[in-house]
Amino acid sequence: MERLSGSPAVSRGAALRLFATALCVVALDQVIKAVVVSVLPSGRSVHFLGSIVRFTRTTNTGAAFGLLRGQGPWFIVVSAAAAIAIIVFRREIAKLRNWDQSAFGLILGGAIGNLIDRIRLGAVIDFIDIGIRDLRWPSFNVADSAISIGVVLLAYSFIFLPRSRDVAANAAEEPSGADHAGSARWDER
Known about the structure:
Largest sheet: 4 strands, antiparallel
Oligomer: single chain
Low-confidence stretches: 165-174, 176-189
Number of strands: 4
Structural class: alpha+beta
Helix content: 55-70%
Strand order of the largest sheet: 1-2-3-4
């Protein structure tokens, strides 16, 4: 994850990106869950793409994809802590790439979306059911997807995208000294 120096305007834009992404995830997650609850009885499946993708309304007291079932109170604490940490460190997140800011927004939105369910219902509503015949992935929801995508984006950024040392080394090797279009000043911390 690369840190970029930024002016207050950049920080406001980054905060907007972080919180707008989170708000979109929470809204989409909660609206879709409300529709699923209103039209689909618990345990019933509706085939979306044959039997490969089905909507099956279930509840989950564990983590994403049905892991650690029955640990609901612990996940309330974990979800709240994750959301609070992202909010507290928003100024540091604002110094990261747009990609990373959006990834943290996905994680924040997913954590809040599932936290709302855990507090309101004592469990999370899952409904996306993917698989072939009896080989099924555990049911999940929009919030789970957002968290997973956010984590994958952060991992990709950390592993594959150049860090400031790499960027500085590449810039020093360019004979023309040309500046990269659209790049910001890189800070080393």
